[in-house]
Amino acid sequence: MTDASNQESLQLCRAVSEALRGDAMTGAWADRMKGQPGVLVSGGPSLSRNGEVLADRDFFDRFVLVATAAAAGSLRAMELKPQLVAATAPLGEAIRQWLHSMNANCVCAVEQAGADCGGIGLPAPAGLVDSLLGHLLLRHLGCDPVVLVGFDLAFIDGVAHAKGNELDLEWSAQISPVRSWDWWHAHWIAGHSRDLRAEPARSGQSVLTNRELQRELQLLEAAFAQDLTQGLQVIDATEGGVAKRNVQEEALSECMARLATNRNPKMRWAQRTRSKASAAKTVVVIREAPRVAAVLAIDPARGGTGVERSLELEFGGRSVLRRTIDRLLQSEEIEHVCLVAPENWDHRAALEGLEPNSHLHLLRVPGSAFGSGHGDIRLARAWSDSCCRGGIANLSVYDEAYSAKAALQACEEVHANAALICGADWPLIAVQESWGVRGLVQRWREAAEPLKFVCSLAAVGVGSCLLPIESVRLLAGGSAVSIGQWIEEVADELEAGGAAKLGPIVAVPQYAASVAERLIMDTPRSIQRIRRALEPLLHGSELSALAQFEALDRHAGAPPTFVPQLLTIELNTGRRGCGLASPHRFGTLQRPTMTPKRMDRILSRISETRDVVVTLAGAGDPLVHPDVAAFAAQIRRAGALSLAVRSELLSPDALEKLAEIDPDVVTVDLHATNSEEYSRMMGYDRFDFVQEAIERVIRGRRREPGAAEWIARPWVLPRIERLRDMVDRIAEFGERWRNRAGGYCVDSPPQVDPWGDPIPDAPISAEGWIYGSSHQDRSALTVLSDGRVPARNDDLLGTTSVGSVDSEELLTLFRYARQHRARTAVKRHELLSFVER
Questions:
Q1: Under DSSP, is residue 667 helix (H, G, I), strand (E, B) or coil?
Q2: For the whole prediction, is pTM greater than 0.70?
Q3: Interior CA angle at 613 toward 806 and 399, to 5°?
Q4: Distance (Å, rounded) from C-alpha 785 to C-alpha 799?
Q5: d(C-alpha 41, C-alpha 148), whole Å
Q6: CA dihedral defined by 548, 519, 483, 167, rounded to 10 degrees?
Q7: For residues 238 and 46, is the Cβ–Cβ distance under 8 A?
Q8: Which of 17, 184, 409, 618 is the most exposed place for a label (fewest CB within 10 A)?
Q9: Is the peptide bond before 145 cis (omega within 30 degrees of 0)?
């Protein structure tokens, strides 16, 4: 510990202590809990190990529980109730409501006087961290000892935080076959960490930490040292993470049994939502309202992911297009609605008699309203169609609907200086809400600096995106990549509750941000889902966004009526890799190979919904199978929307087979950044060989004439597994492959062996508490080469088999699997709420 960090900690402690004593409400709390143990909870990955102890009724109301802002979401998910939350930034709305509901409070030390922080606002010195504020709160209350829980101060096994963090809520709606929970944790760590380094751990091994966590550790250690001089005690019950000075180590269960003996004195943790200086006004720049044109690039035949659909389809007594236009015309911020359509499109049936006027414009263009390469963008989006952001090549839902040609022509036609991007089949787009079109325009006007874009990350088809004309020109001229790329550059900077910043992403309420559904009427699956939930309610007044989401939520658990959208088919079990990344790591898996007759049974009904994407993967490498090209052709003929191949690229003829198959996506089991790692993960050293094979696939990608260089097929994504000692390498791996040809994938390490038994030394699971809510969890299914269908998609042994396609229809088996997962999720919530999977 340096003298500078020690001096900084002491200065912060003095400033915060003075602020606590000087505030009328917190000053009255001084020493009110004297003699009681205080538990300070942070959001480290190990928190879930101690949730059961904190919830033990024997210890209830016998200690003071203070949480940092990072831990608040986890405690909420665990149904634990802290007395106070310590924060140095305004809390998110969901956490505020939760605290109010149980008469808890937040002490928020913020530098900006008058900020609405959701509780008691105190003046904050620069450099204060939540954990130090929480520690000083407990000392102010008179608590001794202070017991630390969840203070890993490190990224244990490459997991950024404990389950239940508010980021889990955001990520749950963005999980897809190409972006797993592990990907989001790894991406967050890489993007928010400076100077990743290994530090000694309590276990004697090392853990990965960064500069910010190191600084927090130094501040706390200095405060703990000061406590020791005053005869006060600090107990570290984290049971993991970095080793800490000036503390005693003890298991939480033993600590509570020894200390939590007397009930807490009666205490009112009264609420106050604004600080004493709340009269101070935040200076906000107010610009002239933009002249907004809502631009709807019309493809009469296909939706955003290339599925055939009709804009004349009836929805609640009107056509889908008419209902979308009527909704946009309700907005006071939109001056013009511009339909940019092919010359030969007959608009009369879709518009139902509505003719162009001073607010509605119909612009004709030769050929398609979309530019070159948009077909490849659609194929990329087909793999994450329920995610508003992310996926292959960082493409967002707004890239599905966006056409630079259409946006430029529309803005020039009506002299607009901003384009609102949405689709022609988005009848649920939010307009009047504070996070809808009205909120986007308001954010654009109030931002301190001109913004490249303004958008909301609501459910797909509900949010929208506003582009100033300068950004439209940048995208049209190729100076910028995509809207999705812009979103990725800023979205990771927003912490949970960070939406108070006047940045380009508008805050979205929880009910709109956590929905993992495609609410665009462009596939039979989404059309049926929306119609069943909303059509009975549409014959009357317009529904609010909240009422829409409540109705959709009531129908979310309905049995599926279509085959799975994300279908993985195993052709064989043979592969060449035999290391730690091999599915055969627990023993050889041998099954009969796929047959054309069995494949026909699997594919018999996938054309009904037209949005099914098929991955050839499983225990074996499909490129080892001699008839893989014939099976790929069979899948195409059956009506699959897109085809992916997962391979090691170790077969001598792998590239020739790939060229014959012509897949849309290729994912490659690389799992390494150097030859040594590759030998460990794959069994022998072919690292240079596989890297060159990937490069050859990338160099051989096909691009439409006139399309940008980065838009080409197939999309290529190398894969790496999140093992315990590979965490620091994932950042290097992602940096190399992030922008090459689609991105990269991070695989989850197995938590159970093929027989369903937990693996004792498995790395911590990265899944959030919202298990089972992602689009992938509900829409994915795997068929093994012998025809069996496991309920768990990672069950390559087939121990959870719900039947076989040889004797039952795929849809029936999909329903069985969904029922099995639902029961498992309920049991996990009821019985294993506080236990790490």
A1: strand
A2: yes
A3: 170
A4: 14
A5: 6
A6: 60
A7: yes
A8: 17
A9: yes
Rounded Cα gap, residues 60 and 356, in angstroms = 67
Tens-digit pLDDT profile for residues 476-532: 988 788 999 999 988 866 643 444 457 899 989 888 888 888 999 999 999 999 999
Q: Which of 419, 397, 398, 400 is nearest to 408 (CA)?
A: 419
Q: Which helix (H) or strand (E) holds 120?
A: strand 120-123
Q: How far apart are CA 828 and CA 769, in angstroms?
A: 10
Reference 41, options 155, 122, 181, 138; nearest CA is 138
Burial status of residue 588 (CB atoms within 10 A of its CB: 0-12, 13-18, 19 or more): exposed
**What is the DSSP secondary structure assignment for residue 663, as one 8-state letter?**
-
CA dist., res. 105 & res. 67, Å (int): 11
Q: Please count the other Cβ atoms lying within 10 Å of the Cβ belonging to residue 267.
A: 13
The helix (run of H) or strand (run of E) holding residue 314 is strand 314-315
Concatenated DSSP letters of 240-261: SSB--SS-EE--HHHHHHHH--
What DSSP state is assigned to residue 646? E
d(CA 131, CA 86): 7
The contacts of residue 209 (CB under 8 Å, 6+ apart) are: 153, 154, 155, 196, 197, 198, 199, 217, 242
Distance separating alpha carbons of residues 734 and 720, to the nearest angstrom: 9
Residue 398: partners with Cβ closer than 8 Å, 6 or more residues away: 421, 455, 464, 465, 483, 484, 487
pLDDT tens track for 133-180: 999 999 999 999 999 999 999 998 889 999 888 888 888 889 999 999
Instruction: Extract long-range pairs of 572-575: CB within 8 Å, 24+ residues apart.
Output: 572/618, 572/620, 572/621, 572/622, 572/624, 572/625, 572/785, 573/618, 573/619, 573/620, 573/785, 574/620, 574/621, 574/624, 574/625, 575/619, 575/620, 575/621, 575/624, 575/648, 575/650
Task: Report which of 481, 488, 482 is spatially closest to residue 504, judged by C-alpha positions.
Answer: 488
* Coil vs helix vs strand at 12: helix
Name residues whose C-beta falls within 8 Å of residue 124's C-beta, 6 or more positions apart in sequence.
Answer: 16, 19, 88, 109, 110, 111
